[in-house]
Amino acid sequence: MKMKKTVSIVGAGNVGEHVASLLLLRNIANVKMFDIPRQVDEKVFEPVKGKALDMKQMLSAMDIDAKVEGYTVTPKGEGYEPLEGSDIVIITAGFPRRPGMSREDLLEANIKIISVIAERIKKFAPDAIVVVVTNPVDVMTYVTYKLLGVPKNRVVGMAGVLDSARFKTFISEELMVSPKDIHAYVIGGHGDEMVPLISISNVGGIPLKDLLPKDRLEKIVERTRFGGGEIVNLMGTSAYYAPAAAIVDMIEAFVQNSKRILPCSVYLDGEAGDYYGVQGFCVGVPVKLGSNGVEEVIKVPMIEEEREMWKRSVESVKKTVEVAEAILSERSSRE
What's the pTM? Predict the structure, then answer.
């Protein structure tokens, strides 16, 4: 009998717990969740253990035979021993950007968190495929890759799958067609400079640019770029249903070795790096995902206008990577 894979989720907040729930309900993998405790006045709560127990009872109610456990860890990295045996580790832990916090402040805070987690992954799950969700995701994927020192195919960031899902949603609503029949990619950095590829997007094989006038397409592209912000403005917090579904899409490709082509943030160098004009950092491109992680970087064609947008997006990511490099270097010299 084939052994079920184990997926560990570091950070069991809104995104992490929804990833766990979807993986279990779809019976894709067994799940381990890791998170820090929460203190209210004198009372210390361990929400990750409570969520795991709740999910166990959900599985019993639905007659699903899967395993889930929750583990309380400390910010200093104590309690990560159960990572051992993980086939895939998902990192959702990190700070959101808060009022008055610069991008550099956010970077420094999240690099500190990622550094502790990466050290524990190296110790307890050195052969795992690692999926990074922490923002800014392209930079955090690069930082994780550098800290782990593993082959580049084993570290991948979740961004383009979510951005593409948003793009498809808005196209679906505009044309009143099923998203199943829409093929659309969003590549580049996971931010305001992302690049929806209209030139190769199609609905049932018909080019998208033949179905919608330019002004409507531009509005859809704009809404896609700021799709995360739209949800924050409505809910007062960032999205979690769609990000969780996007992560599960990736995990399913790894677990089932399905060779899905999905846009993800990956480390680019060599021939693929030359094609995309990126050497030595992570950015979102279509890749083939299977049991070995990132199995191939797909060289997607771009028209001149898209290539210019791509260059701007890459430059934006590169500047943030340089800031992260300086932070890493400073941390290294202090140690």
Answer: 0.95
| Residue 48 CA to its chain's centroid (Å) | 21
CA distance 69 to 62: 18
By CB atoms closer than 10 A (0-12, 13-18, 19+), residue 282 is buried
Whole-angstrom distance, CA of residue 175 vs CA of residue 210: 12
235 three-class SS: helix
For 237-254, write each residue's pLDDT tens digit: 889 999 999 999 999 999
Specify whether the CB–CB gap between 179 and 321 falls below 8 A. Answer: no
Rounded Cα gap, residues 289 and 60, in angstroms: 32
Give the residue among 146, 108, 156 at the shortest CA–CA distance from 280: 146
Given this model, what pLDDT does residue 332 score?
Answer: 76
Name residues whose C-beta falls within 8 Å of residue 295's C-beta, 6 or more positions apart in sequence: 153, 259, 287, 288, 289
Q: Which one of 120, 166, 190, 225 is the catalytic residue? A: 190
**Mean of the per-residue pLDDT values of the chain:** 94
Q: Is 157 helix (H, G, I), strand (E, B) or coil?
A: strand
Residue 110 pLDDT more than 90?
yes
Q: Based on the residue annotation, tell me whether 183 is a catalytic residue of this protein.
A: no
Domains in the chain, start-ordered, CATH in brackets? 6-157 (3.40.50.720), 160-319 (3.90.110.10)
Give helix 214-225 / helix 227-235 axis angle, nearest 10°. 60
